UniProtKB/TrEMBL annotation:
Superkingdom of source: Bacteria
Region forming the signal peptide: 1-36
Regions crossing the membrane: 466-487
Swiss-Prot/TrEMBL keywords: Membrane, Signal, Transmembrane, Transmembrane helix
UniProt source species: Terriglobus albidus
Name assigned to this protein: Uncharacterized protein
């Protein structure tokens, strides 16, 4: 019996020693992972920029004001998320900043729902004019107009908006040298596609576009006209890491991803390594339309952005290299036509949603979906599966009978509002590369590679549920109590 008590006591001391050793090793590994320099040249993490500038009086507040009020980042940061970002910066929690916010999408959704209930009237835009949500250029819904695409566009050259924040920090990206020269034609084509899409609205006057002797009343008819005149039409489903900052520091790109907890566990290589949650940067998904021909050459993209617009847009600013970019699917011919037809339907559906729901703040972002939702829905229609995460749209808003097809597509895709962990195929499919060794976000490449290998072996685990955490916690406490009890019994017997 004494031997049993002694073994229990020794086991308890060994357990404590192992725990202490594990804590040291774990902290060292995590520090090394967090502080690892990016492998991409001319690029720094947000934490490095702020570490260097946090001592400058007033700069932190200036930067936070730029983030909170910016067209892109401001809309995505709910009050609670913004408070977290502020506390990380002011508290100099650089490792936390490099994995901001690190929440599950369910938790993020909760802050949006709370913000909608508490701050809805304060956060929503002052007006809900349709022009605020769909870019129409010179066209209006009230006039019956015709645009002749055989004539050159008069939209002018791209003017990139770059804001100097001081301290060698700027916000905004310059022109893409390959796509910026196409801006005039791309801008007009995007506006024409938007206006053709809105012909579906009840109070819209008829709008037409002509090209090569053919007349189009819908986006897909315009694709027919271009194809009939020998133009090559390609529609690509493209994924990137979302860039929520678009900052530059001392001439370098600044990484500012937005991390989500995938609820998948990164496998450990050694027994003493604790498994951790796989945090992945939020992806940005969009459809890119490339039109190539003897006179008209244009590149147009479609997505629902954090500016509240679900529309065709130009695509001519330079991406920072760390966001990467992957063509998950490419469509030509009849398939390209079908994708454009569906995108026209989504443009009209979101226009109706904006007009019918003025109470939704943040431009409807999160509540009506994120950029992935429409792409997921069309991917499911075109391929029979969807490989994007997250999808956040509350489908009860998609109820107008005039948009029945869009409503059905949105209802069919997986939802990420109920706390259920997403399928691994959606997490990995959202990444902007199929070659995970090329990921340059510090610490992410190894986690993704290890997790994907475990997924292929059928060994990838999900994060434990609440009851599993409770049971594991109780087992841990019981082991400590048993160890202490055994040690005391052993000491008494020695006495």
């Amino acid at each position: 019996m004494r031997r049993i008590f002694r073994d229990v006591a020794v086991a308890g001391r060994v357990s404590f020693a192992r725990s202490a050793a594990f804590a040291v090793v774990w902290c060292t590994l995590m520090a090394a992972q967090t502080m690892a320099a990016p492998t991409l040249p001319n690029t720094v993490p947000l934490s490095q920029m702020l570490r260097e500038l946090s001592a400058q009086p007033g700069f932190t507040e200036k930067l936070l004001a730029a983030i909170n009020g910016g067209e892109k980042a401001g809309a995505v940061l709910t009050p609670k998320l913004f408070d977290l970002l502020r506390s990380l910066i002011l508290g100099k929690d650089w490792s936390g900043l490099d994995r901001f916010p690190g929440w599950t999408i369910g938790r993020v959704n909760g802050t949006v729902d709370l913000g909608t209930r508490i701050f809805g009237e304060k956060l929503k835009p002052a007006t809900r004019a349709l022009a605020q949500w769909v870019t129409l250029g010179p066209y209006t819904l009230e006039a019956a107009e015709t645009e002749d695409l055989d004539k050159p566009s008069n939209r002018g050259e791209l003017k990139a908006e770059i804001t100097d924040l001081g301290a060698e920090v700027s916000r905004g990206d310059g022109p893409d040298p390959k796509l910026a020269p196409l801006h005039a034609e791309s801008q007009r084509l995007a506006e024409v596609l938007n206006r053709l899409s809105l012909n579906r609205l009840d109070d819209a006057q008829s709008f037409r576009a002509t090209f090569g002797g053919r007349t189009a009343h819908t986006p897909e008819e315009l694709i027919d006209a271009l194809s009939a005149n020998g133009y090559r039409i390609t529609v690509s489903d493209v994924r990137y890491f979302a860039n929520f900052g678009h900052f530059h520091y001392k001439g370098q790109d600044v990484m500012m991803p937005f991390f989500l907890d995938s609820q998948l566990m990164v496998p450990a290589d050694h027994w003493w390594q604790r498994r951790r949650h796989l945090l992945v940067p939020v992806a940005h998904a969009e459809y890119e339309l490339m039109v190539e021909g003897p006179r008209l050459h244009a590149d147009v993209t479609f997505y629902f952005g954090i500016d509240g617009r679900a529309e065709f847009r130009t695509n001519d600013l330079l991406n920072q290299p760390w966001v990467m970019g992957r063509h998950a699917h490419e469509y030509e011919g009849a398939q390209a036509r079908e994708v454009i037809r569906l995108l026209g339907g989504f443009t009209a559906a979101y226009a109706r949603l904006h007009l019918a729901n003025p109470q939704i703040p943040f431009g409807g972002y999160y509540t009506l979906g994120v950029c992935q939702d429409a792409v997921s829905a069309i991917e499911l229609k075109m391929t029979g599966k969807t490989t994007l995460f997250p999808n956040t749209a509350q489908t009860e808003f998609f109820s107008d009978a005039k948009d029945a097809e869009v409503n059905a597509l949105m209802a069919a895709i997986p939802k990420d509002r109920d706390g259920v962990a997403p399928a691994p195929e959606r997490v990995f499919g959202s990444l902007p590369t199929a070659d995970f060794s090329t990921i340059t976000v510090p610490g992410l490449r190894e986690d993704v590679q290890r997790s994907y290998a475990a997924h292929q072996r059928g060994e990838l685990a999900r994060s434990p549920g609440v009851w599993q955490w409770v049971l594991e916690g109780l087992a841990f406490i019981a082991s400590i109590i048993l160890s202490l009890w055994g040690y005391r019994r052993y000491q008494k017997m020695q006495d």
